[in-house]
Amino acid sequence: MTKFFSKRTVGTVLVTGVLATVPLALATGTASAATHNWDAVAQCESGGNWSINTGNGYYGGLQFSQSTWEANGGTGMPHQASKEEQIRVAENTLQTQGPGAWPVCGQYLTVEEPAPAQAPAPAPAPAPAPAPAQEAPALPAEVQQYVDIAIPAVPAEVHQYIDVARGVAVEYGYGEQFDQVLNALPGV
Q: Which whole number is the average pLDDT over 76-104?
């Protein structure tokens, strides 16, 4: 017999699991073997200004929303907290949301450590010769007319809205799905 679960049931179970897990994750502190370059993230997010408040709803050097700040152990306003406090909350955020919490600047999180010296790898076997190229058959005229449609450029203002929407999607744990949808849209 197959059982169906409503979205509400799945959502309730998911939220309950998160609510039960977050306090445990926050209680574990910020011990981590990884080295995080928060100064580089702050440079990318806010020009390195740890006390910035531009009025856009994101605060401090790491550009926290107030809800993310509070959900990950911050008190007061992020831009009024010390750099150390912002980093402590950022480590918690990293544990609960991953690097997607900083969709663009998260790339600067890890500091690459020198890799241990390794013996040189053996030379790879030669690649097989490529198959001769075949021309694709011509599309029927009724299909070709849709292929030839030019896609207009997306205005800069739209990209700003997309960036804000991506931030919200990441904040609620849907960053990957948002990017999949966005990548499927032509011209964006």
A: 94
